[in-house]
Amino acid sequence: MKLDDTPVPLPWQRREKRFSHNGKFILTVLPLYIFTLAFVAGPLVYMFILSFLQRAEVWGVIGKFTLKNYTDILDPVYLKTFWESIKLAVLTTALTILIGYPFGYFMAKLSAKWKSRMMLFLMIPFWTSSLIRLYGWIIIFRANGPLDKALMFLHITDAPLKLLYTYAAVVVGMVYALVPFMIFSVYSSAEKLDWSLIEAARDLGANPMQAFLTVSLKLTLPGLLSGVVLTFIPSMGLFFIADILGGNKVVLVGNVIQEQLMKAHNWPFAAALAVVLTILTSVMIYLYRRLAKVKDLEGLV
Amino acid sequence: MKKYLSLVLAVALAVSVLAGCSAPAATPATSSEAATDSEAQSSSAEASSAAPASGKTLNLYTWEGMFPEDVLSSFTKDTGIAINYSNFDADETMLAKLESTKGGDYDLVIADDYIIKTAIEEGLAQKLDKSKLENFANINPIYQGQFYDSSNDYTVPYGAGVQTIVYDPKIVKKEIKGYADLWDASLKGSIGIIGNYRVIDGMALKILGKSYNTTNVDEINTAGEKLKKLAPNIRLIKDDNLQDDLLSGEVGAAIMYTSQATLAMMKNPELKAVFPKEGIGFGIMANFIPSKAPNADAAYTFIDYILQPEVSAKCYEYLGYYCTNKAAEALINADYKSYLTLPADFDMKKMEMIQPITAEAEEAHSKVWTAFKAAAGQE
């Protein structure tokens, strides 16, 4: 995510012209290509091939071609997990927009000193592993935990609520984990906003709402959309939040993949699920770009 | 200046990556005698604390924390054999390593039943010479002659896991006697279970009077329908530290692994452990000697040492698994005895080992389980 938007050419871009003639340029980008091939393309190809193989009777894989793994996905039990994942991802994204958009928008209006302070506050939680922060939520939510005690002290409830291991707890965990990404991308967009344009709109007779909808929203749309991509895509795959805060009862595709790998030892099926999930998310990114007609998703690079 | 700094940092990063790679490679994968010797001196605390008089070493390969420290050190003191304790996280890792060393490098392995079956089938275990095991007769026959080693040629059991129901009578008013009681409407939203589908689907199979190891897909699906009716009562599905949720009152009843049940009972003696009247499924951990063990005699000495009733009792009190040593049962501390040994009136016919099943049945189980979890989430 780039927070500073002044287009500074990267070192290799600057040198490109000088190197392109003598072949040194290829030498400099070679590690990048090797890295991408080995760690991005390699596993993808491996996963794709694995998804067409048969599982062995005990464990392991037999090198025989089959489409069974894909036809198995069509079973309503597994199709439903895809639906659950999309549902949760949409809900999470909607809530992160609700919280993250105003936050990022108004953060851009702060003085320079407070901007950097806010930025620091948002960064600090990232210094701790996200897993450990989730355990923090368990402590808050659990029976007779701080939240229960506070509610009972205020006489809002009179018995411990069952907050942990619910759908709501999962949603809270998801929104908590992803909202910073929305804030950052909206902020980077709103920061570049020329506020005099809004004043101009107001001078020309637009009420604050009209000015916001026609000027601010349109100009921060790239940031908002990249925020959507940055929250929607991970929320399709964040299975451990559903595991830890949902008591394993919210079954997402990620959970099924993990279980097929680690417990059922059905690697080919897990690979097929992963391939379908990858295709699904790629299609969604493509649709976003088509719908929004934005080529350059801010903050994604 | 900046340039040099970034260069230094880049080198440091590269070195740290390499260091990360080389660390695991240094562990027992190397097959030369010299490597194992130097490792015994460097990595094993037991070996360095008591220098062996005979210069013999036992290469023990199992999970972490399988024996109390004092049992290991007194073994070295009494026999003069040093112990080189290497551990694995998962049975599959162990098998892969034995395959790569072709049954060499290690003198003694302790692992789970199903993987031992595969190890024996692949010729990675050697037949036991029982004349070298004076205390062989101490083993509880209930745990012998099971599917993985039907004539007891290769293995000596070391602890059994029996998934049990543990509940808090303060929260659960109904007396639980078997699996079927968990379906009671009064338990809505208050049961925690482990995430092992063979065990949980197996509960429903048991209620329907079927075997844990059925390969009949229709039977598994019928059990799945039965299981769905349990969904409203399920609060939590979790493998690690389920006892914490029972102790904190998050759930009133739980189906859990033996070690978790032991931990829960030790912290709160008022909890009740139940032997379900429908019958139980269990798994066994057992010792076997790899086919090309460099020092098989040391392994025999160790197995026999652990089979002594006094030593055995100490081990099970520490381990928290069911005692597979009949002679040791009487010596186990009365506080632990009720959940480390089977009740005297227990019907052996109701015990059934959870065995590997066909891939088709396994897939049916995993589908039923996914549907059950999703149903629990809808409540």
UniProtKB/TrEMBL annotation, chain A:
Pfam (any one): BPD_transp_1
InterPro entries, alphabetized: MetI-like, MetI-like_sf
Keyword annotations from UniProtKB, A to Z: Cell membrane, Membrane, Transmembrane, Transmembrane helix, Transport
Places the protein is found: Cell membrane
Transmembrane regions listed in the UniProt entry: 25-49, 88-108, 120-143, 163-187, 224-247, 267-288
Gene3D superfamilies membership: MetI-like
Membrane-topology annotation of the record: Multi-pass membrane protein
GO cellular component terms attached to this protein's record: plasma membrane
Keyword Transport appears in the UniProt entry: yes
Domain ABC transmembrane type-1: 82-288
One GO biological process term: transmembrane transport
Record-stated family: Belongs to the binding-protein-dependent transport system permease family. CysTW subfamily.
Record-given protein name: Spermidine/putrescine transport system permease protein
Source species of the chain: Acetanaerobacterium elongatum
From TrEMBL, chain B:
Localization, UniProt: Periplasm
Record InterPro entries: SBP, Sperm_putr-bd
GO biological process: polyamine transport
Gene Ontology CC: one annotated term: periplasmic space
Region named Disordered: 26-50
CDD domains xrefs: PBP2_PotD_PotF_like
Keyword Transport: yes
Signal peptide positions on this chain: 1-19
Pfam family, one: SBP_bac_8
Keyword DNA damage belongs to the record: no
GO MF: polyamine binding
Binding site for spermidine: Y114
UniProt entry keywords in alphabetical sequence: Periplasm, Signal, Transport
Location, primary (coarse class): periplasm
The protein's name in its UniProt record: Spermidine/putrescine transport system substrate-binding protein
Species of the source: Acetanaerobacterium elongatum
